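Before any further analysis, we paired sequence with structure tokens, yielding the entry below:
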Amino acid sequence: MELRQLRYFVTLAEELHFGRAAAREHIVQSALSQQIQRLERELGVRLLDRTTHHVGLTPAGEAFLVEARQILDHVGRAGQAARGAVAPSPTLRVGIIDAGYDSMPQILRELQLGHPGITIHQVEAGTPEQYRQLADGRLDIGIGPASQPPPRVRSELIRLDPLGVLVPDDHRFAGLDAVSVAALSGELLLIGEETQTPELNQFVVALCRSAGFAPTIYEGTVESSRAAADLVLQRRCLYCVPSSFRTSNRPGTSWRPLTQPATHYSWSLLWHEANFSPHIATVVSTARRLADRLGWMEPVVPAVAEPR
């Protein structure tokens, strides 16, 4: 197994289109297809479902994607450590809400392709804690909803992320192309730890109330998306979560978009005006290019379908 095969697979999983993935990796489409096939043969499992008009991840592919991303991130950090031992490199301290959401990891991978000399330290923290660390200089840039930023924190919207629901594969919702918000009435819904995801919690509760019902909240809470997916897999509850989480889905779970109304969760880059630097400007410009290429600001509105 070669590192380039892992990189090709991760890029293809993000694009779900062989032509666009090949263009990102600066190789021809046939070469990309051959490397993915070799990877599947070596693993002995099928990672992708391929049809004439569609590319999707199999359950094995979804599980492999999580580990492949971590391997590539570790390799990147190893290279940074080696270069840093020879000469100091610029350091960027980046806040992420949860490693399960793919927006900031994609931005950082894109950043390091063009700027391999920047050393990145990722700090996992909820939006309130990111605001505190931006204010006291422990963070350079973060990501989260920017509905009520504190004074002097600046933001730029980079993604309108369709909200959906994570369900076990044998749940009745798994047979739908999309789930109406009203259908969540009576289902046990998990919300995150208030210190980690207060904005998402409030967003989901307000959405349910706008559909005419108060959500039934699961009594327990979690501090990570992985723990949330475990509870869903155990059929204890459902979890309303943006689409940027679905590439981290646990095998045995499915993400379905919510509709009626279709709604989107807003992700913004966050930084303190007093600490703006050329490196932060580079992150922002990288995010703009990525958002434009992946259509993050033009989300698709799902349609409700009958169970298959």
Summary: The radius of gyration is 20 Å.
